[in-house]
Design brief:
- The chain is of the alpha/beta class.
- It has three domains: 103 residues, 3-Layer(aba) Sandwich (Rossmann fold), CATH 3.40.50.20; 88 residues, Dna Ligase, domain 1 (2-Layer Sandwich), CATH 3.30.1490; 119 residues, D-amino Acid Aminotransferase, Chain A, domain 1 (2-Layer Sandwich), CATH 3.30.470.20.
- It contains 16 helices and 15 strands.
- The strands form three sheets. The protein has a seven-stranded mixed beta sheet.
């Protein structure tokens, strides 16, 4: 029987569906645990769909595990990782099979509190002789001023427990830094969370309204340069496959990548191997770097879950679902490799600039093989009014987005 993979996500990122394709091409079967409107539920590569419930997340995750009986769980966002860790704590000793599955999927759960602390992770990376910018937990204006006196401006303020570009502010003045510390560190007001829940139709804000909590905020020295990243699959600390890339175009100053270029970077590779080995990680993860004007890279943070870059297929050793599947079952396959090292991420680069030259010179990562996901991605990006769906479907049938 094909090895079963359970993808778990609490958000509607289209990239999750690309992982489903990767695992199916590698010979696995795939179930998904996701919100009811998530694009992954449209994917032809998903066998069974288990609905994620924001108001009872652990119960819905446990039900998905019991029904799917997967060999491995792949977490696709940080909140999903947090739910897996909480479920591990609940089931350890009571439901050992579920606890063992989560441990097999993530690595050592005891390592994650430090990894998910922005300042704690950076201190650990420094101790492993990895180049990192000065980072410190900040709780008041006095500590903030002292940090600015030490490292200068601009600085970056980051709140623990945030991800996907949220909870990160680049401050160019002391006034901006103080305002950022206030915004990131205070507990969200209940009324604001309720309004967000209604406006965004996101029940997670109801949880924030019921149990508002202040965040731990870290300040980090700003490093000028180009964003870079690693995406890697690992097993008990051993790297099975990896992708290293520079970001050529990003969505804003600190947003996700729109265009990337795969690179060979020994420094990123060394840092990635040291982190994976130290924390004995399993599963698929990513790390963010910045490459300065000299070409040196500085580690900024870890994403303890699958990232957009990890969905790309660059062949043997660089197709992460195939790499991890090979450890789970004897016979595996692989997606057709991307031959161009430069990739325009769909639909973000098209959304940013429909006339972008990158859409022609780079590999445009459109999911032609998964038409329903393609359509869901466009609708999610608000690029396709409902009245134009028939025209889009004709374009999809032609296989030519430029039409």
């Amino acid at each position: 029987m094909a090895c079963k993979i359970l993808l778990t996500t609490t958000v509607g990122w289209p990239s999750v569906a690309r992982l489903a394709h990767g695992f199916v091409a590698a010979g696995c079967s795939v179930d998904a645990h996701a919100p009811s409107d998530a694009p992954v539920f449209s994917s032809r590569y998903v066998d069974a769909r288990h609905t994620y419930r924001a108001l009872s997340p652990l119960a819905s995750l446990r039900a998905a595990i019991v029904q799917a009986r997967p060999a491995l769980i792949i977490a696709c966002d940080d909140r999903a990782v947090g739910h897996m860790l909480k479920l591990y704590s609940q089931t350890k000793g009571r439901e050992p099979e579920i606890a063992a599955l989560i441990e097999r999927s993530l690595g050592e759960p005891a390592s994650y509190p430090e990894m998910m602390s922005r300042s704690g992770f950076m201190a650990r990376a420094r101790s492993l002789d990895i180049r990192v910018p000065e980072t410190r937990t900040i709780s008041n204006d006095g500590e903030l001023d002292g940090f600015i006196d030490q490292v200068g401006l601009p600085i970056v303020l980051k709140a623990d427990g945030t991800w996907g570009g949220d909870g990160v502010i680049v401050a160019h003045s002391r006034a901006e830094a103080r305002e950022a510390l206030r915004r990131l560190g205070q507990a969200p007001k209940r009324l604001r969370s309720l309004l967000r829940a209604m406006r965004r139709r996101d029940a997670h804000h109801l949880n924030a309204a019921m149990s508002p909590a202040a965040a731990i905020v870290s300040a980090q020295a700003f490093v000028a340069g180009r964003t870079a990243a690693s995406a890697f699959a690992c097993w008990h600390g051993e790297i099975l496959g990896s992708i290293y890339y520079d970001v050529l175009v990003a969505d804003g100053e600190i947003g996700p990548p729109n265009v990337i270029r795969r690179v060979n970077c020994p420094e990123m590779e060394t840092a990635t191997r040291r982190i994976a080995r130290h924390y004995r990680l399993s599963g698929i993860h990513g790390m963010d770097f910045v490459r300065d004007a000299t070409g040196a890279v500085h580690l900024l943070e870890i994403n303890p879950r699958a990232t957009q870059g990890g969905t790309l297929a660059f062949g043997p050793g660089h197709d992460l679902p195939a790499a991890i599947s090979a450890r789970l079952q004897p016979e595996t396959g692989m997606r057709t490799p991307i031959l161009n090292d430069t990739v325009a991420i769909f639909p973000r680069e098209w959304q940013r600039d429909p006339a972008s030259p990158w859409l022609r010179s780079a590999h445009h990562d459109v999911p032609w093989d998964d038409p329903a996901v393609l359509l869901a991605s466009l609708r999610g990006a608000r690029l396709v009014p409902a009245a134009e769906n028939r025209a889009l479907e004709a374009v999809m049938a032609s296989g030519n987005l430029a039409a």
